[in-house]
Predict the 3D structure of the following.
Amino acid sequence: MQVKGSMMMFVVKGVRAAGVEHFEPLLTVEDRGYLTQRILPINWYPFANYKRLFDSLVSVVARATPGRYGSGAGTTDRPSSRASIGRSSFPATRFGR
């Protein structure tokens, strides 16, 4: 499975902004390579690398801001946000690669 570069860019920017040094023990050498290269939104990238980058970002950011990502995180009372879930005509992941 692969992930679209636009999603990979989001995670890589987050890791860079939080400080790459915090992520060294959590990432493989291949994962760290994505932090130094230019990520193109039109390219496809391995999902496994994206997942490790994303999980490490959540882990580091959640530790830095305790309580912010507890139960109820991401909930909202706005019905419009729930109505748009699943309506994207451009999938961000692709299977079989």
Q: What stands out?
A: Residues 72-76, 80-90 have pLDDT under 50 and may be disordered.
